[in-house]
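Design request, tokens follow.
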């Protein structure tokens, strides 16, 4: 297990699996301190992700939170501040990687839309929002 070395391929695959298998996703208004948040149960319990789409792109916010879930064990040796720095850096790179692939963009659009209540899915389903904002999404464990 601890021999595992993360690559962008395996990180994206793990994020996809976590989204499909264990995440609930809501677009909602959040306090000003958070543009997205997530609580989850270790090791493989439900992950409840909430994204404030007024503050951050839905895909960006979702991926940020999924990274917290997927990498929590790998980041256990870092304090919260450094974990957040690492997640933010990976979020930017992972989103860039997705943006460059029509196939990946479509996968994420469909998977995220399936997770959203119909009312929310309509808001983001029609057009790409770009979602390249990188600031301030935060994970929260509980
Ligand atoms: Zn975060």
């Amino acid at each position: 297990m601890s021999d595992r070395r993360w690559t962008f391929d395996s990180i994206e695959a793990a994020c996809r699996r976590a989204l499909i298998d264990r995440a609930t996703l809501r677009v909602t208004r959040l306090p000003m301190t958070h543009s997205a948040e997530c609580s989850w149960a270790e090791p493989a319990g439900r992950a409840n992700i909430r994204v404030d789409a007024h503050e951050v792109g839905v895909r960006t916010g979702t991926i940020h939170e999924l990274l917290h879930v997927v990498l929590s064990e790998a980041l256990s040796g870092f304090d919260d501040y450094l974990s957040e720095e690492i997640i933010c850096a990976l979020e930017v790179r992972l989103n860039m990687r997705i943006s460059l692939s029509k196939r990946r963009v479509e996968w994420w659009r469909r998977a995220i839309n399936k997770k959203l209540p119909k009312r929310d899915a309509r808001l983001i389903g029609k057009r790409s929002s770009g979602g390249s904002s990188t600031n301030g999404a935060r994970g929260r464990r509980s």
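Comment from the thread starter after seeing the answer: thanks! Residues 8-125 form one domain.
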